[in-house]
């Protein structure tokens, strides 16, 4: 299994990244803010618009270090990747399967099964751990609805129908999301998923978590030789990492959502960490973003036992494990792609 290296997050605005030997140097108005050896990094995520030198981008591409550019609000701008790695036969198989909607649906439905299953067990865990603080009867009813949808997804062979079932399951799960917020309920509430821009504190954090998870998943897919831009559930769209969006569906709840809920419920973040702009968009302050990213890195280091592989790995390596399993399925080493089923 791949070793989990560090991610360097640049949160200050107007910081320019340059290359000096085998190091990345952070510059702001000619002042050197920091210097980091690149051999310790697997990715660099920078918030802002100043950019990076062509020399650094070339070094990262050659060294398989992903370089992600986001706005200060955490919205995706661009991603630098190097030459395609891995077996060309694997990618050709991926492209051929992606063109066939029936065969794509057979792969895509396992992504959705994983997503719904994990959402179901998030609700079940809440009834077990907080029976006096949530509506147990309602949560159990919602869990049963998700179980029924899993059966429908399992039998589905059409992509359009599969997307409809996924949307139905998401709406069912999100209908109980606000109840999983146990602390600071006046400042942190969830009515519906809002994006571009997020309109409340919870959605602002969810958007950033999903962006980071998408980046990690795309890097994992590229590392095993797959094309992160060619998906099975999410169809081709210029600039969209469709396969990364496919694979990360399983991890939205058990990784990103649980992470955001833990920050709120453990009071690691507060109302003061957010700003509301004139257009209604809610953004995190610079200090809040730093706290968020530090906690995200810490979460990625936590060790779990992978439910399919039976190996102890860190949460940060779960996207790599799922990318590897998907590649094995496309090579016909596995009859089906095994989704990440966390309980």
Plain-language structure description:
It is built from ten helices and eleven strands. Strand 5, helix 1 and strand 6 form a beta-alpha-beta unit. The radius of gyration is 20 Å and the shape is globular. It is of the alpha+beta class and 343 residues long. It has two domains: 75 residues, Ribosomal Protein L15, Chain: K, domain 2, CATH 3.100.10.20; 244 residues, Four Helix Bundle (Hemerythrin (Met), subunit A). Homodimer, forms a heterotetramer with a Cas2 homodimer. Belongs to the CRISPR-associated endonuclease Cas1 family. Keywords: Antiviral defense, DNA-binding, Endonuclease, Hydrolase, Magnesium, Manganese, Metal-binding, Nuclease.
Features:
Four Helix Bundle (Hemerythrin (Met), subunit A), Ribosomal Protein L15, Chain: K, domain 2, alpha+beta, 2 domains, 10 helices, 15% strand, 343 residues, 47% helix, 3-stranded antiparallel β-sheet, single chain
Percent of residues in β-strands: 15-25%
CA-based gyration radius:
20 Å
Task: Using the coordinates shown, work out and report the CATH topology of the largest domain.
Answer: Four Helix Bundle (Hemerythrin (Met), subunit A)
Helix content class: 40-55%
What order do the helices and strands follow? EEEEEHEEHHHHHHHEEHEEH
How many structural units, i.e. domains? 2
- The geometry reads as globular
The CATH class assignment of the largest domain is Mainly Alpha
* CATH architectural category of the largest domain: Up-down Bundle
Major sheet size, sense and barrel closure: 4 strands, mixed
């Amino acid at each position: 299994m791949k070793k989990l290296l560090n991610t360097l997050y640049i949160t200050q605005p107007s910081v320019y990244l340059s290359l000096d030997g085998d190091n990345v140097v952070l510059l702001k108005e000619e002042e050197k803010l920091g210097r980091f050896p690149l051999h310790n990094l697997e990715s660099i995520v920078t918030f802002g618009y100043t950019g990076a030198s062509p020399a650094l981008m070339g070094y990262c591409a050659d060294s398989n270090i992903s370089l992600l550019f986001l706005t200060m609000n955490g919205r995706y701008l661009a991603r630098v990747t190097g030459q395609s790695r891995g077996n060309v036969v694997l990618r050709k198989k991926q492209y051929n399967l992606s063109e066939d909607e029936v065969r794509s649906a057979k792969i895509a439905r396992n992504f959705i099964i994983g997503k719904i299953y994990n959402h179901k067990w998030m609700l079940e865990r809440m009834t077990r751990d907080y029976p006096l603080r949530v509506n147990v009867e309602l949560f159990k009813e919602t869990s049963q609805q998700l179980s029924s949808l899993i059966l429908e997804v399992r039998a589905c062979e059409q992509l359009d129908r599969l997307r409809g079932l996924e949307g139905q399951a998401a709406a069912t799960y999100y209908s109980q999301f606000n109840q999983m917020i146990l602390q600071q309920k006046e400042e942190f509430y969830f009515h519906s998923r809002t994006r571009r821009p997020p309109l409340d504190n919870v959605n602002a954090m969810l958007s950033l978590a999903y962006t980071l998870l998408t980046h990690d998943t795309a890097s994992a897919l590229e590392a095993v030789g797959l094309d992160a831009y060619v998906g099975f559930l999410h169809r081709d769209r210029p600039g969209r990492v469709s396969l990364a969006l496919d694979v990360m569906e399983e991890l939205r709840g058990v990784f990103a959502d649980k992470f955001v809920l833990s920050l709120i419920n453990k009071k690691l973040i507060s109302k003061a960490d957010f700003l509301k702009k004139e257009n209604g968009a809610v953004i995190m302050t610079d200090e809040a973003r730093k706290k968020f990213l530090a906690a995200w890195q810490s979460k990625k280091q936590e060790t779990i036992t992978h439910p399919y592989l039976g190996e102890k790995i860190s949460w940060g390596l779960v996207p790599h494990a799922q990318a590897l399993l998907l590649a094995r399925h496309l090579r016909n080493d596995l009859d089906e792609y095994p989704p990440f089923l966390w309980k």
